[in-house]
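Predict the structure of AIM24 family protein.
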Amino acid sequence: MNQPLAGFAPAPVTARMENHGNHMLKVAMQTGNDLLARVGSMVAYEGFVQYEPNPPAVRQIARDWMTGEGAPLMKCSGDGLLYLADYGANVVVINLNGDAISVNATNLLAFDAHLTWGVERVKGLAKFAGQGLWNTKISGQGWVALTSRGKPIVVDCGGGEDETYVDPDALVAWSPNLKVKGKRSFKAQSLIGRGSGEAFQMAFSGQGIVVVQPSEDSTDRLRVRG
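Done. Here is the predicted structure for AIM24 family protein.
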């Protein structure tokens, strides 16, 4: 291989999911260990990998997606290496060890198909906008890959009394055991969020983390829900 190009070759496999650079996900595929991935995210693969868009398990969950939450998913199965990406977004790999994470569906890239998942309403926000906010909760023992528009910050809420405030349009994921409530702010509306009118923030407290991207989701999550 040409020496300058050799630096871009994939590293030896050391885990089920790994980053290849900051913007691509490498998945070690094995028969019987299927993957659910965002439709259209496959950029390359080696070996024998098959794809099934909108599999039965996804169709069952899709009944809860009337609110608009949820990503179109495909089931990936087979043996080899699978490479996924989402328009150059940063990729964040998480290994769940019997715990859970709540994810904005637009930031969900892929996860092990055996994990437990579903669409859930975020409590405490309905009074701010219609039926409030819906997120995808994933739990169990396995791997999850998220995307972030730019390098994210992971805030450890630390279990203290101080709350962590986040623009919902910049929110990627959080620990579902955190307490969540909405906050309406008039004074901060010119500083937080891109839209006009009142500014909304989500306040998190308790023991857990919040993942925030340096770019706002253009779907304007607290206005569209209804």
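The chain is about 5% helix and 45% strand.
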